[in-house]
Amino acid sequence: MNGASSASQTLEITANAGVVQARQRVRALAQQCRFSLVEQTKLITAASELARNTLIHGGGGTMTGGLVEERGRRGVRLVFDDRGPGIPDVDLALTDGWTSGAGMGLGLSGSKRLVDEFLLETVPGQGTTVTVTKWAR
Amino acid sequence: MTERVPILQIGNVLLVSIQTDLDDQSVMLLQDELAAEVVETGAHGVVIDITAVDIVDSFVGRMLATIASISRLLDAQTVVVGMRPAVAITLVELGLSLGGVRTALSLDKGLRLLERARAESLEEPEPDAAAGPGADGVGPDAAAGL
Fold it and tell me: Could you tell me the domains of chain B?
Protein backbone atom coordinates (compact mmCIF):
# COMPACT_ATOMS: atom_id res chain seq x y z
CA MET A 1 0.00 0.00 0.00
CA ASN A 2 2.42 2.62 -1.15
CA GLY A 3 0.86 6.05 -0.85
CA ALA A 4 -2.58 4.60 -1.31
CA SER A 5 -5.30 5.62 1.03
CA SER A 6 -7.51 2.96 2.49
CA ALA A 7 -11.25 3.40 2.34
CA SER A 8 -11.35 7.11 1.63
CA GLN A 9 -14.71 8.69 2.16
CA THR A 10 -16.08 11.79 0.52
CA LEU A 11 -18.16 14.34 2.36
CA GLU A 12 -20.17 17.12 0.73
CA ILE A 13 -19.53 20.58 2.15
CA THR A 14 -22.43 22.69 0.95
CA ALA A 15 -23.62 24.34 4.17
CA ASN A 16 -22.34 25.29 7.65
CA ALA A 17 -23.28 21.83 8.88
CA GLY A 18 -20.77 20.37 6.41
CA VAL A 19 -17.93 22.15 8.21
CA VAL A 20 -19.05 20.60 11.51
CA GLN A 21 -19.29 17.17 9.86
CA ALA A 22 -15.82 17.60 8.37
CA ARG A 23 -14.42 18.23 11.88
CA GLN A 24 -16.17 15.12 13.21
CA ARG A 25 -14.96 12.96 10.33
CA VAL A 26 -11.37 14.15 10.75
CA ARG A 27 -11.52 13.59 14.51
CA ALA A 28 -12.51 9.95 13.87
CA LEU A 29 -9.68 9.51 11.35
CA ALA A 30 -7.09 11.08 13.68
CA GLN A 31 -8.16 8.82 16.51
CA GLN A 32 -8.07 5.78 14.23
CA CYS A 33 -4.49 6.77 13.35
CA ARG A 34 -3.66 7.09 17.09
CA PHE A 35 -2.61 10.72 16.91
CA SER A 36 -1.65 12.39 20.17
CA LEU A 37 -4.19 14.84 21.55
CA VAL A 38 -2.18 17.83 20.32
CA GLU A 39 -1.73 16.33 16.83
CA GLN A 40 -5.45 15.55 16.69
CA THR A 41 -6.35 19.08 17.69
CA LYS A 42 -4.03 20.57 15.08
CA LEU A 43 -5.40 18.42 12.26
CA ILE A 44 -9.05 19.01 13.16
CA THR A 45 -8.41 22.75 13.38
CA ALA A 46 -6.68 22.77 9.97
CA ALA A 47 -9.58 20.77 8.50
CA SER A 48 -12.07 23.23 9.95
CA GLU A 49 -10.28 26.17 8.29
CA LEU A 50 -10.02 24.39 4.93
CA ALA A 51 -13.61 23.14 4.99
CA ARG A 52 -14.79 26.70 5.65
CA ASN A 53 -12.67 27.95 2.73
CA THR A 54 -14.27 25.31 0.49
CA LEU A 55 -17.71 26.49 1.55
CA ILE A 56 -17.19 30.25 1.53
CA HIS A 57 -14.60 30.88 -1.16
CA GLY A 58 -15.21 27.79 -3.28
CA GLY A 59 -18.98 28.03 -3.12
CA GLY A 60 -19.15 24.51 -1.68
CA GLY A 61 -17.31 21.33 -2.55
CA THR A 62 -16.10 18.10 -1.02
CA MET A 63 -13.66 16.72 1.51
CA THR A 64 -12.20 13.30 0.88
CA GLY A 65 -10.34 11.83 3.81
CA GLY A 66 -8.59 8.60 4.61
CA LEU A 67 -5.66 6.93 6.28
CA VAL A 68 -2.44 6.67 4.31
CA GLU A 69 0.68 4.60 4.74
CA GLU A 70 3.96 5.57 3.15
CA ARG A 71 7.46 4.35 3.88
CA GLY A 72 6.37 2.79 7.13
CA ARG A 73 4.60 5.91 8.32
CA ARG A 74 0.91 6.20 9.05
CA GLY A 75 -1.04 9.36 8.58
CA VAL A 76 -4.27 11.06 7.61
CA ARG A 77 -4.68 12.67 4.20
CA LEU A 78 -7.48 15.10 3.42
CA VAL A 79 -8.40 16.52 0.03
CA PHE A 80 -10.61 19.62 -0.18
CA ASP A 81 -11.98 20.18 -3.62
CA ASP A 82 -14.17 22.91 -5.06
CA ARG A 83 -15.21 24.22 -8.47
CA GLY A 84 -15.16 27.83 -7.34
CA PRO A 85 -13.41 30.86 -8.80
CA GLY A 86 -9.91 29.63 -7.92
CA ILE A 87 -7.17 31.71 -6.30
CA PRO A 88 -5.58 34.30 -8.62
CA ASP A 89 -2.51 34.90 -6.43
CA VAL A 90 -1.49 31.87 -4.40
CA ASP A 91 1.47 33.53 -2.67
CA LEU A 92 -0.74 36.36 -1.51
CA ALA A 93 -3.45 33.95 -0.33
CA LEU A 94 -0.84 32.13 1.76
CA THR A 95 0.27 35.33 3.49
CA ASP A 96 -0.70 35.71 7.14
CA GLY A 97 -3.37 38.30 7.59
CA TRP A 98 -4.31 38.62 3.96
CA THR A 99 -8.02 38.10 3.53
CA SER A 100 -10.43 38.31 0.63
CA GLY A 101 -13.41 38.27 2.93
CA ALA A 102 -14.44 38.95 6.49
CA GLY A 103 -12.06 36.43 8.04
CA MET A 104 -8.76 36.98 9.77
CA GLY A 105 -6.72 35.76 6.85
CA LEU A 106 -5.32 32.79 8.74
CA GLY A 107 -7.28 30.00 7.05
CA LEU A 108 -4.75 28.92 4.44
CA SER A 109 -1.49 30.11 6.01
CA GLY A 110 -2.51 28.91 9.47
CA SER A 111 -3.69 25.49 8.39
CA LYS A 112 -0.48 25.01 6.42
CA ARG A 113 1.47 25.36 9.68
CA LEU A 114 -0.72 22.79 11.42
CA VAL A 115 -0.04 19.91 8.99
CA ASP A 116 3.08 18.16 7.67
CA GLU A 117 2.35 18.34 3.94
CA PHE A 118 0.31 20.97 2.15
CA LEU A 119 -0.37 21.06 -1.57
CA LEU A 120 -2.48 23.76 -3.16
CA GLU A 121 -3.60 23.44 -6.77
CA THR A 122 -5.78 26.12 -8.23
CA VAL A 123 -6.89 27.22 -11.67
CA PRO A 124 -8.61 30.60 -11.88
CA GLY A 125 -12.17 30.09 -13.03
CA GLN A 126 -12.04 26.32 -12.48
CA GLY A 127 -11.55 25.61 -8.82
CA THR A 128 -9.15 24.81 -6.02
CA THR A 129 -7.86 21.58 -4.52
CA VAL A 130 -5.98 21.55 -1.24
CA THR A 131 -4.36 18.30 -0.15
CA VAL A 132 -2.97 18.04 3.37
CA THR A 133 -1.28 15.18 5.19
CA LYS A 134 -0.36 14.77 8.81
CA TRP A 135 1.78 11.86 9.97
CA ALA A 136 1.49 10.10 13.31
CA ARG A 137 4.55 10.80 15.45
CA MET B 1 -29.91 24.22 11.98
CA THR B 2 -28.91 26.99 14.37
CA GLU B 3 -28.18 26.02 17.91
CA ARG B 4 -28.81 28.31 20.85
CA VAL B 5 -26.26 28.38 23.65
CA PRO B 6 -27.86 29.21 27.01
CA ILE B 7 -26.70 32.43 28.65
CA LEU B 8 -26.95 32.25 32.45
CA GLN B 9 -26.82 35.14 34.87
CA ILE B 10 -25.10 34.89 38.25
CA GLY B 11 -25.24 38.22 40.05
CA ASN B 12 -23.59 40.75 37.76
CA VAL B 13 -21.96 38.14 35.58
CA LEU B 14 -23.20 36.38 32.45
CA LEU B 15 -22.01 32.81 32.05
CA VAL B 16 -21.87 30.91 28.78
CA SER B 17 -20.65 27.35 28.66
CA ILE B 18 -20.09 25.96 25.17
CA GLN B 19 -20.88 22.25 25.28
CA THR B 20 -21.33 21.25 21.65
CA ASP B 21 -19.54 21.64 18.32
CA LEU B 22 -21.22 24.84 17.09
CA ASP B 23 -21.59 25.71 13.44
CA ASP B 24 -20.55 29.20 12.30
CA GLN B 25 -24.07 30.55 12.32
CA SER B 26 -24.63 29.47 15.93
CA VAL B 27 -21.33 31.14 16.87
CA MET B 28 -22.51 34.43 15.32
CA LEU B 29 -25.88 34.12 17.05
CA LEU B 30 -24.15 33.67 20.42
CA GLN B 31 -22.07 36.79 19.79
CA ASP B 32 -25.16 38.89 19.04
CA GLU B 33 -27.22 37.49 21.92
CA LEU B 34 -24.41 38.07 24.41
CA ALA B 35 -24.12 41.73 23.41
CA ALA B 36 -27.88 42.18 23.80
CA GLU B 37 -27.85 40.40 27.19
CA VAL B 38 -24.99 42.54 28.52
CA VAL B 39 -27.05 45.66 27.86
CA GLU B 40 -30.33 44.18 29.04
CA THR B 41 -28.97 42.85 32.34
CA GLY B 42 -26.34 45.55 32.93
CA ALA B 43 -23.86 42.76 33.60
CA HIS B 44 -20.31 43.79 34.51
CA GLY B 45 -18.69 40.59 33.43
CA VAL B 46 -18.95 37.82 30.85
CA VAL B 47 -17.45 34.38 31.40
CA ILE B 48 -17.12 32.06 28.43
CA ASP B 49 -16.37 28.52 29.51
CA ILE B 50 -14.63 26.48 26.80
CA THR B 51 -13.68 23.50 29.00
CA ALA B 52 -15.66 21.17 26.73
CA VAL B 53 -14.42 22.71 23.48
CA ASP B 54 -11.80 20.54 21.80
CA ILE B 55 -10.92 22.86 18.93
CA VAL B 56 -10.91 26.62 18.52
CA ASP B 57 -10.36 27.64 14.91
CA SER B 58 -9.92 31.16 13.56
CA PHE B 59 -13.68 31.69 13.35
CA VAL B 60 -14.34 30.86 17.00
CA GLY B 61 -11.14 32.65 18.00
CA ARG B 62 -12.37 35.78 16.25
CA MET B 63 -15.73 35.44 18.01
CA LEU B 64 -14.00 35.32 21.41
CA ALA B 65 -11.96 38.44 20.59
CA THR B 66 -15.02 40.23 19.22
CA ILE B 67 -17.14 39.44 22.28
CA ALA B 68 -14.35 40.79 24.48
CA SER B 69 -14.24 44.04 22.46
CA ILE B 70 -18.00 44.46 22.28
CA SER B 71 -18.52 43.89 25.99
CA ARG B 72 -15.68 46.29 26.83
CA LEU B 73 -17.60 48.98 24.91
CA LEU B 74 -20.68 48.03 26.90
CA ASP B 75 -18.85 48.35 30.25
CA ALA B 76 -18.32 44.65 30.86
CA GLN B 77 -15.16 42.55 31.11
CA THR B 78 -14.83 39.18 29.39
CA VAL B 79 -12.89 36.19 30.65
CA VAL B 80 -12.45 32.98 28.69
CA VAL B 81 -12.00 30.03 31.04
CA GLY B 82 -10.98 26.40 30.73
CA MET B 83 -8.92 26.44 27.57
CA ARG B 84 -7.33 23.04 26.97
CA PRO B 85 -3.54 22.94 26.52
CA ALA B 86 -3.84 21.39 23.04
CA VAL B 87 -6.19 24.21 22.03
CA ALA B 88 -3.73 26.86 23.26
CA ILE B 89 -0.83 25.21 21.38
CA THR B 90 -2.89 25.01 18.18
CA LEU B 91 -4.14 28.60 18.41
CA VAL B 92 -0.63 29.97 18.69
CA GLU B 93 0.58 27.87 15.76
CA LEU B 94 -2.44 28.96 13.74
CA GLY B 95 -1.33 32.54 14.35
CA LEU B 96 -4.05 33.64 16.77
CA SER B 97 -2.67 34.71 20.13
CA LEU B 98 -5.94 36.37 21.27
CA GLY B 99 -3.99 39.22 22.83
CA GLY B 100 -7.07 41.21 23.81
CA VAL B 101 -8.82 38.33 25.53
CA ARG B 102 -8.45 37.71 29.25
CA THR B 103 -8.22 34.09 30.26
CA ALA B 104 -8.32 32.08 33.47
CA LEU B 105 -7.70 28.41 33.98
CA SER B 106 -10.95 27.68 35.78
CA LEU B 107 -14.42 29.14 36.23
CA ASP B 108 -13.62 29.91 39.86
CA LYS B 109 -10.48 31.85 38.96
CA GLY B 110 -12.31 33.62 36.16
CA LEU B 111 -15.05 34.84 38.50
CA ARG B 112 -12.49 36.09 41.01
CA LEU B 113 -10.60 37.90 38.26
CA LEU B 114 -13.81 39.69 37.27
CA GLU B 115 -14.52 40.63 40.90
CA ARG B 116 -11.05 42.10 41.31
CA ALA B 117 -11.26 43.98 38.01
CA ARG B 118 -14.61 45.45 39.01
CA ALA B 119 -13.39 46.46 42.47
CA GLU B 120 -10.35 48.19 40.96
CA SER B 121 -12.40 50.06 38.38
CA LEU B 122 -14.78 51.29 41.10
CA GLU B 123 -11.93 52.45 43.36
CA GLU B 124 -10.36 54.64 40.73
CA PRO B 125 -12.61 57.57 39.89
CA GLU B 126 -12.86 57.01 36.14
CA PRO B 127 -9.42 58.25 34.99
CA ASP B 128 -10.50 58.22 31.34
CA ALA B 129 -13.51 60.43 31.90
CA ALA B 130 -11.55 62.90 34.04
CA ALA B 131 -8.50 63.22 31.81
CA GLY B 132 -10.33 63.14 28.53
CA PRO B 133 -9.06 61.61 25.29
CA GLY B 134 -5.35 61.39 24.59
CA ALA B 135 -4.47 60.65 28.21
CA ASP B 136 -3.98 56.93 27.56
CA GLY B 137 -0.69 55.66 28.89
CA VAL B 138 -0.52 58.17 31.71
CA GLY B 139 -0.38 55.95 34.75
CA PRO B 140 -1.65 56.80 38.23
CA ASP B 141 1.90 57.56 39.38
CA ALA B 142 2.47 60.10 36.65
CA ALA B 143 -0.84 61.71 37.38
CA ALA B 144 -0.06 61.95 41.12
CA GLY B 145 3.23 63.69 40.38
CA LEU B 146 1.61 66.55 38.52
Answer: 7-145 (3.30.750.24)
